[in-house]
Amino acid sequence: MTDLQISLLAIGGTIVVGVVIFNKWQEHKAKKSVERAFSTGHDDVLMNPHHEPEGQQEQHYTRQEPQEPLDGMQYRQEPSLDVVSMADDDQAFVPDAIQTEAAPALPAASAASGPAMMPAQDVHDKELPVDELIDCIIPLEFDAPIRGEKILAEIHSLRYVGKKPVHFIGQSHSGERDVIAHGGIYTTLFAGIQMVSRGGPLNELEYSEFVMKLREIADRLNAHPDIPDMTLVMSTARELHQFVSEHDAQLSVNIMANGAPWAINTLHAALEKQGFDSRPDGRLVMPDGDGGTLFSLSTNVGISEAVTARLTLLLDVPCVAPARDGFGAMAACARSLSTRLGGTVVDDGNQPISKAALDEIAGQVHAFYAAMAESEIPAGSTRAQRLFS
Fold this sequence. Notes:
Elements: H1 3-39, E1 73-76, E2 83-85, H2 109-113, E3 135-147, H3 148-155, E4 160-161, E5 164-171, E6 177-178, E7 185-194, E8 196-197, E9 200-201, H4 204-221, E10 223-225, H5 230-246, E11 249-257, E12 262-263, H6 264-273, E13 277-278, E14 284-287, E15 293-298, E16 307-308, E17 310-316, H7 326-341, E18 343-346, H8 355-374, H9 382-387
Antiparallel strand pairs: 1-2, 1-11, 3-7, 3-10, 4-5, 5-6, 5-7, 8-9, 11-17, 11-18, 12-16, 13-14, 14-15, 15-17
């Protein structure tokens, strides 16, 4: 080997060692920045949307007159589950789906289901798994009263048709309706298939399969099903789907690193200590304290990545009750994280979002909640959770 070759090998080795050392230094710097951010004596504002982090200055959120709509405002577009921008150019920070007008009237369920439909269920009363507003309900009247255990043995395998959930309740001699239970005696069985989900409305094939399976159950239980006309059911399902499409709003805010990216492992551990729960898909969710999700956080990188320079917080608006103030909690969390981590709250176009703009969006969210409540599908209710699943 010549002296030139030896020299080139030495120079190449030196360069490789230098690159490795630089990468290790960058990872160490990112890790330390996250550790410092969460090792200080900050109050835990991630669960307190009305508390501003100590020392936070307003210059982080200098009001910028927007030239483009807030890209963080998201909207599901059927039939895809992907999110797209939902704001008009002349209404910055105010999505079309969140307006002060009253929500469109829901279709009259009785028209689709005829005698099968039950009186409208008051959302303040006991919620049953079969709901006349969002389910197509088919009654099966028995020749003679039947015990609950016999009914359960026949219906236990019918939980879904396609991706549409199916639920059952029974009616006793007294006329009371409730879930089927062992020891109960029932004169009528009510089967309901959900007419709409985020995946789309109930279609003819799903409805036909549902009816066929119910006829088989009816034969075994000596029952007489009252089948609604398919045309009317499909019409109601499409109208309900229109309502879901117009109210399927999601809001997001982002935190962009001002300097070096953040170490993922240290960031995950710190966020979990702050109350976030880690999910298998890599998302972190803030629980609402009652078994549900308040909002979620994404690091926007794959599981093999070691660092990230951007975090995204996402609120599924119709699935969170107004009393929980999901948007207020998410905005406070974003402001707190930006202060702790040395970042800036931005929209999807990397434009800074001021606190005043976030407050303006919060007002539109309240109007959105009022419109949903007027349509008898309050945000965060069982009905909303089912429709927007």
